[in-house]
């Protein structure tokens, strides 16, 4: 972020690396276009697109600043934002740690298995002893390394006097390793190194799946984030300007905010007249006029002219942070939700421990001796270890989440899927959720082909919501922008340029009575393009499908009831209007008290607290950053159907998870008596464990097949994207 | 027995090689952009754009 400081001081130095999030990267063509297009810009030495994370890494000379690169990307047809300093690094490190542990345990498992198979095949005497020693040599370091995630989590739980799934796992693995070591030293017949390491391998596979699902959805969401200003150009007393990062801004500073920049702090306008896009805060797409003395808030975007702003509140004091706090409190209730695997562990752990202990005591009474009894208790722990249980939930949820991702819905974690499955009614926000939330031209047919090409070329040069809407609509019609000369944005008026030497423009209408309209000016002739905020194309259909799934829909909006009523009537659902954020919370509370588990779908910052408080929530990809963070899932694109698909897939996932649990229980019913009676040799343990895991994973893979509803509409969504 | 003293170290060594290769791949960012790698094959290398 020190690019700006570098501009003044050093003209030539080593290349800088900057990263941008570009949500619009959708295909191989986009990769090629960006990499080739940016490489031609002077000063750029290397460009690399990361398609998965929707990021572009640019290596460039310090003289070329980030704004200029964003501008170049915009000329290529892509909206871009400066990426924050790797916000996901911590989660990433966690997944990498688990992956490394998985790789080590996999290596250990295969090599020990190699030795164990020959022992099972009948090797004995000195050969068996040597193989046991070799197994110990591999097994002990592998358990020490790959078992760490479980040991540390179990220790943590025990320290607070609780127990979790990791406690029986840790005890089982440590006991098995310790006993096997003893067997090896005394030349005994059975060593369980293979069982202990295999157990770790399967369990780590489950953990890795869980972590990867979380990361993938988060990076998808993070690539949609980043609208809030990360800093501002500040003018000091001597009139010198410098770039200050958002967290170092202080009240009293004077920010210079150029057109198209977003505010990094709250403040009041000192000088200049402009229009402000506050859609991030309110969800309202219509720009507001603002002049000196007016308040602006962090997250809003300055659309019109450059202005000077006196900072009044920064960081945690801004309005946006205030709402974040409200959401934090509202989210408390949700954190009390207990995931299904943990609920199962609550009953499972004590049962397993008492079973193992009982068999130890039983065999002692029967006079088997402490060594034999311990060996049997360890076998019970290994056999009952939640191998299949540890895989049952994550495997099903990962398959379901990647299935949903293909249909345009990013689920943040497994708990969201579990809660989605139990939702029994839906509350929609209106603007931006049932409707597209951005103005779209309603009468494009009046323009001919050349007009459209000129209009697109003009519109894509501006960040004004009307221009963006117009550009989006024209691109959807595959219009190719005309080549214009001298393209410029005239603050408070619109875009102007030259087409084949003739003056053209996309201007604000003169008369004040039309609110959402622009005029395309060409050869002195003015053509008015009207805008409206249309319903999502499949809103009606989605609500019907939801009703078919047994979910009743309603509208909960902050808009005037007069504006909400017609929409609700068109969709045939009930509506509440004139609700402030706190009122929405109250409505949701009331619904929860009457036994409803509400799925909240909303986009504006005013929906943030409601999204956090609802049983489960979904936000559209066009929603404010705060809402996307508060919601459990984000759907991308113009269609609403992913909401219904999510419910369907979540329900099928839970059905599969229950089947997996049932399979695990049946397996235990068969295997545990054998273990208690002392019949379980390392060979039987190995076969039992891998069979049950394979059954669970195989059953989970059935979720990759699109469901009835998803299948029916898959084609339509595919076309829309 | 002579065969074993030769084969077991070989097996272990090859396993370690695989493990090392995986660690290297992870560190050097081979898994950073899996979808992108699948898409890149479709980019045409034409010079006229």
Question: What would you say about this model in short?
Answer:
With 721 residues, chain A is of the alpha+beta class. Helices cover 53% and strands 17% of the residues of chain A.
Structural overview:
The complex is a heterodimer of chains A (721) and B (49). Chain A folds into 4 domains: 1-83, Alpha-Beta Plaits, CATH 3.30.70; 228-261 and 265-313, Calcium-transporting ATPase, cytoplasmic transduction domain A (Distorted Sandwich), CATH 2.70.150.10; 367-376 and 386-437 and 535-721, Rossmann fold (3-Layer(aba) Sandwich), CATH 3.40.50; 440-532, Calcium-transporting ATPase, cytoplasmic domain N (3-Layer(aba) Sandwich). Chain A is 53% helix and 17% strand. Chain A has 721 residues and is an alpha+beta fold. Helix content of chain B is 67%, strand content 0%. Chain B is elongated, with a radius of gyration of 20 Å. The N and C termini of chain B lie far apart (66 Å). The relative contact order of chain B is 0.07. The model of chain B has no long low-confidence stretch (mean pLDDT 81). Chain A binds chain B through residues 27-29, 31-33, 36, 49-53, 96, 99-100, 103-104, 107, 110-111, 114-115, 127, 134, 138, and chain B through 1, 4, 8, 11-12, 15-16, 18-19, 22-23, 26, 32-36, 39-44, 49.
